[in-house]
Amino acid sequence: MRGFSIKQHDFNPGLFDELKTDHYAKDLWPIVYILSDNTIKEAYVGETTDTYARMNSHLKSSSKKRLTSVHLIGSPKFNKSATLDIESNLIKYLSGDGNFKLLNGNLGLANHNYYQKPDVYWHLFKSIWDELRTEGLARHSLEHIDNSDLFKYSPYKSLRYEQVTALQVMLKGILNEQCKTVLMEGGAGTGKTILAIFLFKLLATDSEDFNYGDFGDQELEFLELVEQIKIKYPKLKMGFVVPMSSFRATMKQVFKNIKGLKASMVIGPAAVSREKFDILIVDEAHRLRRRKSIGAYIGAFNKAAIRLGLDPNEANELEWVTLQSGKTILFYDENQSIKPSDVDKGEFKKLKANPKTIVEKLRSQFRVLGGNDYVDFIDKLMQCKLPETTGTFNSKAYEFVLFDSVGQLVSEIKQRDKECGLSRTVAGFSWDWLSNKEGQEHVKDIKIGDTELKWNAVTEDWINSANAVNEVGCIHTTQGYDLNYAGIIFGHEISYDKESHRIVIKKEHYKDSTGRQTDSAEQLKEYIVNIYKTMMLRGIKGTYLYACDPDLRDYLANYIPLHRSEPEIPQVQFLQLEEVIPYENAIPVYHLDAAAGEFGENQKVSELDWVKPPKFLRVTQDHFACRIIGESMNKVIPNGSYAVFKRYQGGARGGQIVLVEYTDLQDSEFGSCYTVKEYQSKKSVSEDGWEHESIILKPLSTHSDYQDIVIREDQIAQFRVIGTFECVLT
């Protein structure tokens, strides 16, 4: 038994006769359902405790009665909280999957905790998703969807409290006759783009597609505001303005796959000059341009300005969007302005001072797992404002590492890409882009010591291009995007002056010809520092750095943990037998290549080696040490080192490093039936509880050739956890 059922029915009035035999429907159990049509590729996800009434209502709906199939998902484990949660996850992941366009509005998505949510119901949802893939309702794995732009920028997301407050401010600003502009300020990773798309979808969705009544007064307030806007603008005309062409192409793909939105709604600033809009929402507004160092774009810029009756020499794109819209919503971060062509921040200050402008700030970090602490650290690091006593950055949630080898950095990024996808190497513009010239496609642009690398071969949506992991991107191909891991090469154009304790710029090494055309050396420094800060806020899980300049590398090493290419094997202190007081000043060492059968049993004290335990360890008779041979766990346990374990006495072990005995396995590195790996398990749910489907023993290695060991259900009897890892002996 899987612990759930998915039953498919034709979606027509004959459905009600079939429901008479459905246990979950006739007994008013909470269920989740998917209405769909495989021809028009549309779907609707919902949950209910009254299947009859809800299906009857949907059959009367002009948009839903066109759908032809309904899948009813039921489980004895379902309760109201669980079905709201599973409904929310289905909406998010089906939207990101792209197989169907969803009719759902983007209100009413549950984001609350409840009993056994992470332990039971997430496993249940994953099993339901696998079954939906079997039945053809879903195409991609959850892991694949997590890395997709369609999922990352989906409007079907639960907003955080700060975002909800900002959304209310924007809706009220649109209704406020005294307000012309709403300026949403927020740093990289504060959720500006998601909020912008959410707002756009909210205003573009028919009211009948909202979920009513699930979340009380707050939802009703939103619905009332939206209704008032639609009364005020009965034929609402909106545009979603994205200044950067590469990111604009990505947003067009996102809009294309969302019901109610179209790719043509995503426009560049020049297109704004051709028509009027009720509302313009501008993402990445700090990248709006002025007529300075804009290269080939100068002709189109001049025409757009003249079309609006403006002097091209004085006009800028910020002026265009405010002229052409009744209401303008700007998402802005002055610290992400990176070129002299960007509208001067002074223009935004004037706008903020205007009484017809409402200013709201987003402060919470949603992208990087290091949170606001990491963002603040990066800001002070690049301004040289960290006290000397700060020490190196330390976070259990975020991997921030300085490399002494650029080749090793690139290798690690490729390994992270194999493990979790969306890991890319990016660099400052310190090398000419030679490979973009005809006949030079195979030229290596970047040479650092023995390492040779190539700039990005494409400019639009480079992050998702086929060969991106083998290339190096720049700020122009990464700004606006999320990565799991970012490997950043600080080029020769940025250094550190030890005497003045300041970041310094070497303009002669900066190869962005338009970026060099600044009004002053300080302005150039501001742009380049902004570039590196922006790139260092791309990585969700981690950021790896390499600095070409030795002085800068020395400065960074004061505050960033160093990656060691060859980890040192810790030295342990063995004790003479006469010194040993068992389990007081010593713990035993077992030799895995010699042990067999019952682990550690029937061995005399005199036959064992004894080592001094670490000072912090409260020693018990369950503690022991083993020497770990091989590279399969070298991210945590260096080859040849001694590791301390505690005998396993039961309890949860998921995600822990364990020493296991498996009688049908001979680990070649240990030469025995024992191995050390990270423990994971895949479970199946039934009416009687949980059962293991399989156990996965994962290596944690910098070498990609180590594979997971999968122990299937019929092999689990030969499997035994001996101990859980405590630490490496030093």
TrEMBL record:
Residues 28-100 form the GIY-YIG domain. InterPro entries: GIY-YIG_endonuc, LexA-like, LexA/Signal_pep-like_sf, P-loop_NTPase, Peptidase_S24_S26A/B/C, SLFN_3-like_DNA/RNA_helicase. It comes from the Bacteria. CDD domains: GIY-YIG_COG3410 (cd10439), S24_LexA-like (cd06529). This is DUF2075 domain-containing protein. It comes from Robiginitalea marina. The lineage of its organism: Bacteria, Pseudomonadati, Bacteroidota, Flavobacteriia, Flavobacteriales.
